Amino acid sequence: MRRRPPIRPLAVLATIGMLALTGCGTDTGDPGDSADRTPSTGTGRTIHAHQVMRLTRVHEETGMTLLEGPTFNEDGDLFVVDVTAPAGKPKVLRVNVRKKTSRSVHTDGRGAYTSAQFSPYDGRLYLTDYAHGEIVSLAPDGSDPRTFFSGKVEGAQMNPDDIAFDQAGNLYVSDSRGLSEGKALGRVVRIDRDGVTATVLAGDLASTNGISFDADYRGLWFSELTQNRISYLRLDGEGGVASRHTAIRVDAGVAQTDSIAVDAHGNLYQALHGRPAMVVYDKYGERLATVEIPARAAAAGLESATNVAITPGGTTAYMTVSGPAGGYLYAFDALAEGIRQSNGG
To answer: Beta 45-48 vs 287-292: how paired, if at all?
Structure first.
């Protein structure tokens, strides 16, 4: 990615299938100094994130790298997707955060994967292919790719961005339709765990992006990229909606609301596209903290913090951060323990 005002990379994903191969490296170098901190803005305290490792470099053919969808497997390894990886290069990586090593577990010639999460129903890894409107699943080791869902939902093709699973394994997807047109065509879509029935739960949204269940599975938090707001969708327990309201308006300036995670205390971790930081709110909308990377790292070319996974049963959080300097993992101490709602999506 060249130095320029932040542009949501998803708007150019349709061109990825025409791009050729490029190299992608793993490095532990950090473009910043942990002692050089970016001051927080707004209310709440500042949480300082530290660099763990570099996973990717900018791909020559696509002009960018964008890490997303961090999610832990049962062995404690972290799976991460590179949204803009070209054909044949690692699109899903498996990271050993203790040893600071990574390896490719999946690639293909067309997918532009924006999120990853393991299903509680069948244990497979589910990926959203934004560019082709599909949801793909893999075996836990990255093999056996299958198309779980494709086609139109209530007459319109999806641009699936993030996923949240309920306890039974049904999928709740943020459909980011209208992103390139600048229209409020986004939706929240529910897909039964068999991949047959899909239902729109909410529509007329401004580029739906992050989505996560609350700590009690009573409702869904979802963000709208081009409105910088987080809404709450209370569910009726039968696959339908009981109510919906705007819950939080995010003061982010030129940055925009990306993915969402929720910890064991119900706190929301809202990632920011266009700023390498996250903001943390409690379930009542109080801003508790801002997660920052070192100022020198941001200045050296890290522009967005897209998502986070908190170690299940622990408080170490791993944040995906990307920009012209490459794709990195940063770690910080979360406010509460990780649960399924803070592990991918």
So the answer is: parallel
Residues 55 and 93: beta-carbon distance below 8 Å: yes
- If pLDDT is split at 50, 70 and 90, which confidence band does 44 have? confident
Cα 297 to Cα 27, 36, 50, 287, 300, distances in angstroms: 15, 9, 10, 24, 5
Beta strands in 130-240 (DSSP E): 134-138, 146-149, 152-153, 156-157, 160-165, 171-175, 186-191, 198-205, 208-213, 219-224, 229-235
Q: How many CA atoms lie within 13 A of 27 on its CB side?
A: 12
Distance CA 192, CA 165 (A): 10
End-to-end CA distance of the chain: 24
**pLDDT tens profile 67-101:** 999 999 999 999 999 999 999 999 999 999 999 99
* Residues 213/166, Cβ–Cβ less than 8 Å: yes
CB atoms within 10 A of CB 336: 15
Taking the alpha carbons of 278, 316, 161, 208 in that order, is the dihedral positive or negative? negative
* Residue that has been written with the tokens 């793993």 in this structure: 26
Domains in the chain, please, with CATH? Answer: 9-342 (2.120.10.30)
The token pair that represents 36 in the structure block = 């050089």
**Whole-prediction pTM value?**
0.88
Q: Work out the number of other CB atoms within 10 angstroms of the CB of residue 44.
A: 16
Confidence at residue 278, expressed as pLDDT on a 0 to 100 scale: 97
